[in-house]
Each structure stands twice: as structure tokens, then as C-alpha cells.
From TrEMBL:
This is SGNH/GDSL hydrolase family protein. GO terms for molecular function: hydrolase activity, acting on ester bonds. InterPro entries: GDSL_Rv0518-like, SGNH_hydro, SGNH_hydro_sf. Keywords: Hydrolase. Residues 164-362 form the SGNH hydrolase-type esterase domain. It holds the Pfam family Lipase_GDSL_2.
Amino acid sequence: MNVWPPDAPIRSIIGQTVREIVRVTAAGQQVILRFTNEFGSHPIQLDAVNVARALAAGWIDTQTAQKATFGGKAFGTISPGAALFSDPIDLHVDALSHLAVSYFTEQYFALATHHYEAQQTCYISEPGNFADAEVMPVQQTTTSHYLLSSVYVQAPKTTGAVVCFGDSITDGLCSTIDADNRWPDIFAERLRGAGIKLAVLNQGIGGNRLLHDCRGVKALERFNRDALTQHGATHLVLLEGINDILWPNTILASGREFVTADEIVAALGQLVLRAKMAGLKVMIGTLLPFENALPDLPGIGFYTPAKEAIRQAVNDFIRNLSGADAVMDFDVLMRDPAQPTRLLPEYDSGDHIHPNDAGYRAMANAIDLEFFA
């Protein structure tokens, strides 16, 4: 996603090594790394890139370490608005294992593209190339991630992939850092335990909306990039739209960005249709309750009875008219029966819109695996 100024804990990198930890959900003998300069206006040269099995606290297993090349060279350039893919790297990876991808660049570059609040620690070194170091001298850490956008695994042809497309609830905001407690993580574990050969791709962006840009380009625009062109994708779980309701007339968005229930359901219907045209089996989720949402932010209006009426209308469409192959009623699962406009307290992270670890686990455990078998 683009860097929204309030979300920029780190604004630039110069002569440092960045180490990002990622969890892969398919097993294989080769990987390809994808780096992105999606929103940058200047090229970024990667002078050294290393991938290895991740150990605790940013350490790596040096016996598994492999240098990445780009067209046979040890360095590569990410052009503005584009991506850079590594050559295939011989590296055995297990499903649900963690890799550390370390990259060094001598140049200065401003951070224009990132994954805000990835719920995973990213390590940034003191000045120097430490891409292949077992442990880096760390200058600072952040839970946002930067240039690395995908790890492709050379999996058997019988392996497919589920794209989990949504906003911060899919991204796992408010789950425990470094614990893999986002609902797509737990869903991947369930698939693995059931012997269903599907990787899980988390394409959630915090604050994302269907119809307006801000935190990430709007879903209608990013859908091709993040869902339809994903290699090996066979299924889609779609959960998006609450921010279109929540944001307008608040500190986050003006009233000019207000959207009606009809506009939201039209957008969701388009995503379902486009996914089915691309050959994906589609499961769509109802929108979670959000009364009293974001109490720590200044201003009022995140929840109003009028906004709740929009959510109810959208959920009615999702349950009955979306055209999806299956519906996961997250609303019924997560709401408080005594106050259906609110999250169940034991599933509430405290901001009254994002689940906690128990809530994300409940979401993942409720998904019918037969749909994916």
C-alpha cells in the first residue's frame, strides 16, 4: 500500500539492511522473491539479498542461507511503479514455516510503499550490509514491512491457493505480534491439518475500502493485482466494506466520501462476478458489528444508527443476493446476542471493531472446509 503520512514510523532507508520475516503456507524446493516499488517515484537498487530459515528474534539459520540473484547478478533495480522478481532460489521450505528475507541497499530511498502494521517484527540494521549475517546489529524495529511483497513457492501442480481479500480484519490488526494469530493464519493451519493442499494468501490492507483510495488503492482497483493474477489461485474469501461505512464524516474521511448501501453492494457484486469469471470459487463474509468503534480516536460518528442500517442492508445482500458460491456469516458468529450491534466481549480486542486472538481463531474455525476440499 501507499504510505499515508500518519502511518509512517520510518520515512527512509540509507545504507542499511532490512530483514523481514514471512510465513509460507506451501511446501516446495524453490522460492522466488517479489519486491515492489509500487508507489515510488525513483528506482531502488537492491545491492544484496539473502533468504534463509528464520530463527527467533531476527536471527537466521545460516546453514540454509541462499543469496538471491536477478538475471544472474547479485543486484537488481526495482523501477518506479513496478516489481522486481528474483531468479528461482534452491531452498527447501516446509508449509507453515518462517523465512527471513534480508536486503541491503547502499543508496538513500524514501519509503513510499509499505505494509502498515503487518503484525510481524521487521528488523532494520545499523549502517552496513548484514544480509547474510546470522544476527544483525539492529538499529530499530517496526511492525510495518517494506519492499518485499511476495514469496512464491515452487509447489506441486496439485497445490492451489486461497486468496483472503479484505481490510484490517483480514490483515489481522490487533492480533498478537509475531504469533501468527490472524484468521488467515489459523485457517491455513486448519487446511493443512485436514490434508487440503491449498496455500493461503493474505491480501488484507488495513483501512482499505471498496470505493475510495487512502490506505491502499480502493478494492475495485487493486482486485486484479491482489486477487485475480495470483499464481495458483483457485478460491477467494472476500470480506470488505466496513470501512466504506465507518470512515465518512469522521476524522478519517469527509462526508464527501459517504457511500450508500446500494453503492457498496454494487461494488461487492462486481468483485464476486470478476472472481468467478477468472475461475475462482468465491466465499463472501458478512460485515462484523462495530458499535462504539475506535473510542480512542478524536471525534464522533464512527458508529451511528444510520451507518448500522447500511451494514444491515449490505449483510442482507451478502446473505441472499451476492452471487457468491458460499457465504460465511461472520456477523452472526461474532456479534453479542444481547447487543447484536456490538462484538461479543470475549472476541473484542478493545477497539470494538477488530477481533482479538480468540475472535480471529473463532472466525477461522467457523469456515466450512468442505468448500475448499
